[in-house]
Amino acid sequence: MAETYDLIVLGSGPGGYVAAIRAAQLGLKTAIVERELLGGICLNWGCIPTKALLRSAEIYHHMKHAEAFGLSAVKPGFELANVVQRSRGVAKQLNQGVTGLMKKHKIAVHFGDGKLTDKGKLTVTRDGQATELSAKNIIIATGARARDLPFAKADGERIWTYRHAMTPKEMPTKLLVIGSGAIGLEFASFYGDFGAEVTVVEMLDRILPVEDEEVSAFMTKALAKQGMKIRPSTGVQKLTPSAKGVTAEIKDKDGKVTTEEYSHVIVAVGIVPNVENIGLEEVGVEPDTRYHIKTDEYCRTNVPGIYAIGDVTDGPWLAHKAMHEAVIAAEHIAGEHPHAMDKRNIPGCTYCRPQVASVGLTEAKAKEAGYTVKVGKFPFIGNGKAIALGEPEGFVKTVFDEATGELLGAHMVGAEVTEMIQGYTIGKTLETTEAELMGTVFPHPTISEAMHESVLAAYGRPLHI
């Protein structure tokens, strides 16, 4: 006899475990299926441990520049194995936290490979033993994995994905990073701060291509100032690993091909959804044109009773988007009436040095959409707290609809902007205009005052520049 539930969640990443918790809160008998570790990639091999690594790099950077703060640090150094060990400890602690949450909410956890076998039916296989589960509703939250280059599969020795880069066996001396999105730049920043000679190549004409053009230009200069080589409009044609390193054939924007040597390569060129061998074909779930699962505004697939959330669906592929979809799906299943996701209000964050954060439309996208815009920009050099912190590099940029004053987008680069962007995200969610933002009291001294000044600047009223 199959074990019967109201809801089965396939995958326990940030989308999966949040869906299970919200469903349990709403009184649904819930099970979750996980083939590896509770918390999924994000908690164990992504968002969380990378931030622990980057925190170590940030502290090491400040140690090397202690004199700028009137301090002394004699011959600061690091042990890479200890840096990695701390990162793994942080991930383990949070994994245990998710385990505790499953117990607290009385969610049944089944470890193994889950596969849909029929409508409302799922088989979990572990060590050759199969367990049959059934539920009226199933949420697919199987996530995604790193995309390999078609001509060079990551081997964990010389060619790495993000997962290899999180637990390195050795420190790269000369590192090639292929791809300049969030993952690529975060690892470039981490290894660069610990002394590796870093080159970043990007096929498109600028790094961080989804960000505002002014942010991309600023980051290009900031990273170059740190010693990185930034090469947009450049592609890698071939990688040949050896015991000593990797030979890369690189084609620049003028079509010139050069052969270059690196100690290691990190491939950060996107993700592939985990849709294989989970029974989608058996039950008739339709993929979209990029093999992600197609869903509607309430995360429903084309098959009644089957929902999908997170990286296995259309982008943006962010943990907080998955968590929000999880709540929408669980509440819809429970008969609640959740608001549909508005992707314009999903913030994006890149935790390199300096940090990058944004929400809404870039200036260019707003103009493409037909808006006449008012744009404000305020540099960190005009902010007292940023100067006191020794972090005067950066700016805040805001984009408004001239006709209505609606906040269309906000774009930030500099210290702690990943913490500040939520202020604008709340503003967008509440459909605020420049009037409310101008009338908001910002505490002094804080870097967040630059947010206020950027709004004022859009309307010709900045106070400190």
Secondary structure: helix percent: 25-40%
Question: DSSP strand (E) fraction?
Answer: 25-35%
Give the radius of gyration: 23 Å
- What structural class is derived from the secondary structure elements? alpha/beta
- Count helical runs: 14
Assembly type of the chains comes to single chain
Number of strands: 22
Low-confidence stretches: none
Biggest sheet layout: 7 strands, mixed
Topology at a glance:
Blueprint: E1 3-10, H1 14-25, E2 30-34, H2 40-45, H3 47-64, H4 80-104, E3 108-111, E4 113-118, E5 121-126, E6 129-140, E7 144-146, E8 159-160, H5 162-166, E9 174-178, H6 182-193, E10 197-201, H7 213-225, E11 229-231, E12 235-241, E13 246-251, E14 257-262, E15 264-267, E16 271-273, H8 280-283, E17 306-308, H9 319-333, E18 348-350, E19 355-360, H10 363-368, E20 373-379, H11 384-388, E21 395-401, E22 407-414, H12 417-429, H13 434-438, H14 449-458
Parallel strand pairs: 1-2, 1-6, 2-3, 6-17, 8-15, 9-10, 9-15, 10-11
Antiparallel strand pairs: 4-5, 5-6, 7-16, 12-13, 13-14, 18-19, 19-22, 20-21, 21-22
Helix pairs in contact: 1-9, 3-4, 3-6
